[in-house]
Amino acid sequence: MRKLVIVGGGYGGMKVMQQLNTKDLPSDYEIILVDKLPYHCLKTEYYALAAGTESDHEIRVPFPKHVRHHFGNVQNIDLSEKKITLATDQKNDTLEYDKLVIGLGATDKYHGVPGAKEHTFSIQSMENTRRTYEAISNLPPHSSVSVVGAGLSGVELAAELRESRHDLNIRLFDRGETILPMFPRRLSSYVTSWFQKHDVEIVSNSNITRVSADALYNHDERIKADAVIWTAGVQPSNVTRDLDVEMDEKKRIILTKHHHIPGFPDAFVVGDGASLPHAPSAQLAEKQGEQIVDILKLQWKGEKLPDTMPELKLKGTLGSLGKKKGFGTMMGEKAAVTGRVARLLKSGVLWMYKYHSGV
C-alpha cells in the first residue's frame, strides 16, 4: 500500500483526516497518523486544564477510525528520500511515505531570556499543561503566579486561574502598552477592566530579562514568583525548523500557493509551521487543511492544479474570561462581542467541534 502520512494530530492534521474518507482515497492508498498520543487534544482549551477548571478527558477528541496510527516522536524528516525517523520505545524507527502532511505544531519561544526555559511552566503541549496544572494545584494559599505574555493564551489563562484560585496573587506581564494588541481597542479595554475588577495585576511595558527558581526580573527588578507560566510567543517545532528549505524570519516554511514545499509537491505543511498571511491559530490550520485535501484529490486524479487558491478567510476570534464572560470578534473581525454572549458563543463553537466534527 502507498502511504499518506500525517505527522501531528493537531487541528490541521485532524481536518485532513476528517475530510479524507476511505472513498476519497485511491484504492492503493492508506492514511497513517504519526503522533505521541492516541487522541486529538483541544489545544485552545489547555489554559482551562492548567487552571484546573476542565479535566484532561474533556479536552480530548478521538481520531477518525479509518486512520492507522503509528505512535512515536518524529526525530527527522528526509524530504529527498521520503523517509521519517521516529523514536519509539527507546529505539529509532523509519517510516516511508508517498504523500506527507507536516503538522507538528509549535513550541515555546523564549527570546533568549536566561532561565526562562528552565524555570517556567508551559501550556504548549498536553504533557506540559498537565505539569503546569499539578504545579498550580499544589501551590499554598496566597502564592504568587506570574503569567508572561498577554496575548489570547495568557489572558485566558490568567482569567481562568483567577476563577479557579481566588487566593492566588496573579500578575500578567506584557511588553506592550495594552493587552491583546491584535484585538480592537474596545475589547482590550473591556478585558483590562475585567482584570482590574477581579484583582489581577497587569504589568504593561514589561521586559522580562531573567527568570530564576523563585522570581522573575522585569527590567532587572526582582519580583517574587512561586510559579511563572510562559505564554510570550511560539515557534515551529524543532523538526520543522531543522528542514533544509526556505523559511521566513519566524522560521516558518515558505510554501507554494498549493501549500506544499517548493520542489517537493508531495510534502505539505499545515498549521504553525507554515508561513501564512495570518497569525497561527486552530481556525487557520483547519482552513488550510481543507485546501490541502482539495489539492491531494486533484493530484491523485492527475488533474491540473488551480492557478489560484481561495483566500484563507477567518470568521473571527473568541476568548474567555472564566466560565461566565468572554470577548471576541466575528464576521471576519468586523463585529466585536463581549460579556456572556461571547462566552456562550465560544462554548457553542467548542461543543460543535467536539461532537459534530465528522469523526
Automatic annotation (TrEMBL):
Membrane-crossing residue ranges in chain numbering = none
GO terms classed as biological process: aerobic electron transport chain
- Key words of the record: FAD, Flavoprotein, Oxidoreductase
What cofactor does this one take?
FAD
Q: Which GO terms describe its molecular function?
A: NAD(P)H dehydrogenase (quinone) activity
Source domain of life: Bacteria
InterPro entries, per this entry? FAD/NAD-bd_sf, FAD/NAD-binding_dom, NADH-Q_oxidoreductase
Domain FAD/NAD(P)-binding: from-to ranges: 3-289
Q: Which Pfam families match?
A: Pyr_redox_2
The Swiss-Prot or TrEMBL record describes its family as follows: Belongs to the NADH dehydrogenase family.
Stated name of the protein = NAD(P)/FAD-dependent oxidoreductase
Q: Which organism is it from?
A: Salicibibacter halophilus
